[in-house]
Amino acid sequence: MSRVVLLDQRLPQVLATERVEIRRITIAPGQAAGLHVHNGPVFGSIETGSAVYQIEGEPPAVLAPGDVFYEPAGARIARFDAQQDGVTFLGYFLLPEGTTAELVFPDDH
After folding, report:
1. Cβ–Cβ < 8 Å for 104, 64
2. Sorting pLDDT into bands at 50, 70 and 90, what band is 109?
3. By C-alpha distance, which of 19, 18, 89, 78 is closest to 49?
4. Residue 12 DSSP class
5. Does the pLDDT value for residue 78 go beyond 70?
6. Cα–Cα distances in Å, from 31 out to 50, 85, 99, 103, 108?
7. Taking phi first (over 0 means left), then psi (-120 to 50 degrees means alpha), and beta for anything else, what does residue 18 get?
8. 74 vs 2, 31, 39, 66, CA distance in Å?
């Protein structure tokens, strides 16, 4: 048996999480998700394909199968762009009581 820590992410504040919603998300080859913001923290892991991932103001990274990522609540995600092979990933949405996962596309690109 082998256990490897892939990500140990501290949250900026304590979050009373009632549930975790896990989504399998597929983005077509060459498609960009566009600038977006989540209302809560999102963790993810790439299953197949690859994507360019970038939080606004930080350098971009190419994510491949097995890579993990963290999108802080309220952070402007500048890029989550599928590469030529597309991308499928699992997104883990941490949700406080009475909250649903929301995705906003700001008008001020």
Report:
1. no
2. low
3. 89
4. S
5. yes
6. 11, 10, 29, 17, 20
7. alpha
8. 35, 23, 6, 25
